[in-house]
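Appendix B, example 12.
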Amino acid sequence: MTLEQFFKENPKVALGFSGGVDSTYLLYAGKKYGADVRAYYVSTRFQPGFERAEAQRLAKHIGAEMTVMELDALADKRVVQNPPERCYYCKLGIFGALKARAQTDGYALVIDGTNASDDMDDRPGMKALAEMSVRSPLRECGITKDEIRRRSKEAGLPTWDKPAYACLATRIPFGRPLNAEVLQRVECAELALFKLGFSDFRIRVYEDAARIQVPEAQELVLLEKKAEVITAIKPYFLIILLDLEGR
């Protein structure tokens, strides 16, 4: 099956939209092939504020309608406990709310941007999607991440080389309860590093410290800017560590 065939067979769909490489290309493809595809962005404490604004810009660029939904992911105690299967419970909440809203809006089918490169065995969130009958056209059509980036570049989408950006909850080790305060500290610290010119990095919480992971190519730059990095992150973490294994 091709994406064109998918959208011809399913001409009216609701898309769980993050503004990342995959969902942006999928939104573009749906519009290209004449489908009535509406983007739904579910905003929780797990996404930094800039992602919402960027998703809105991308939807406008593509010419698609985008609905923003607010969801308190921390209201689910199973998510707050932060077990290894946290993503499963989180996806149940996010896509459960999305499906309910989409059905109210007249969209019976919900799709997401899971692609053919994503490992089903290592993604508890995919189990939740399967249970809720959320379809993944990119995966069904055998389209890999590299192919999505290539097609996105050809289509002139600004996300073609966008680094992956997992939710903020992934910065907290499993078993450590999640709360709004620590998520906010991580968000602010990462935003500070973005402003210093770094990209495709993570700030992971280690005890009470910030453990910085950057790609190897940026390690020397980080050391050269050590004083600036410390100044930028100190308001949020008193202890700052550099992970020498990097990203």
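Residues 3-154 form a domain with the Rossmann fold fold (CATH 3.40.50.620). The chain has a mean pLDDT of 95.
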